[in-house]
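Limitations

Structures in this collection are predictions, not experimental determinations, and the ligand pose is part of the prediction. Treat each record accordingly. The example that follows, with adenosine-5'-triphosphate as the small molecule, is included so readers can see exactly what is and is not provided: the inputs are given verbatim, and the output is the predicted complex.
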Amino acid sequence: MSQIKDAGVPLQFAGVRHRYGDSVAVADVDLLVEPGELVALLGPSGCGKTTLLRIVAGLLRQSAGRILIGGRQVDGLPTAQRGVGIVFQNYALFPHMNVRANVGYGLRARGVAAAQERDTVDRMLELVQMTALAHRMPRELSGGQQQRVALARTLAVAPRVLLLDEPFAALDKNLRLDMQMEIRRIQRELGITTLLVTHDQEEAMSMADRIAVMNAGRVEQFDRPETIYDWPASRFVAGFIGTANVLQGRLQRLGSGYALQCDAGGELALDDAAPCSRDGAALLSVRPEHFAFAAQGTGGPHGTVSMVVPLGPQLVYELMLDGGTSVKVTVPRHGEDARVQPGERVALRLRDGAPAAVFVPEAA
Ligand code: ATP
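Predicted complex:
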């Protein structure tokens, strides 16, 4: 792999904006993807992810801001000179060429000598584990196999940055998981800086070193998957990734920490809390597995269990809090909390050391 082993270069977005006519598709995006890092652009349909990817590729010229690859501004360069390789969801293989010819296409177009083309194609086929099917035509391959060939063809020309545009969207769920792991392995092996566009939060969580969560053209949070899960920066992020219970209340100091006085009644003690609005109004986001049941009469919010659903090793409880908010609590199926039955009244507490993110309602 020596040809592309050291391909890791930084990819930087500096104040990138884009408008289509009057509508703003991307607004003031600043991101630095480190050499060899895999960053996912994650967000709902229309949030601007594809627009950003097209801007990096040189398929679209941004309205403002700069793109730097390896520290060099590339905005004036055509796609072919940027050193980017793109894999699209529809593979776009040449139907009349076999696997080997598809993988070698970019090398031949660049005038690479036949012996070198053969060596590189061999290495790429091995990398994506397609050596045995090198003489098949695209129509004789499964979706996952076609995707491997598309990846090999893109990597054969040694791009400095790999762009993946919803590359697994056309694959069924099991195959998608296999391909996600496979591409992650190859990406790590090559150390190639990679940008993955996806609307699938599980895909972003399982593949990315860091995730940029986008909403309406802006990056709302850029951090490691576990940090985004535990400490979402806004209500949008909390709701888009995983399941979040959002409780409204007022934040007060309590000893060395804080407590949220819930509008639904009761209070929850927090070790730490981000600054909140001047009058203390705050929203608290708690993941279902970070709640636990407490005895009635303790200080937490109270409610009644409306439903319990077994989910593998866990039970998922749905509770209606006294103030009318519905929350979900997951507990280990064989733990103490699993004895609670539908119709029972319970109080809630945060598990010891559980993360609970606070945001001001305006930022929600
Ligand atoms: P999806 O997951 O649906 O592809 P996305 O997050 O990739 O969505 P973009 O395709 O980047 O979103 O689109 C961002 C915004 O720009 C959307 O509001 C979209 O309607 C708009 N848009 C995209 N392409 C064009 C275009 N060629 N002309 C006008 N508006 C466009």
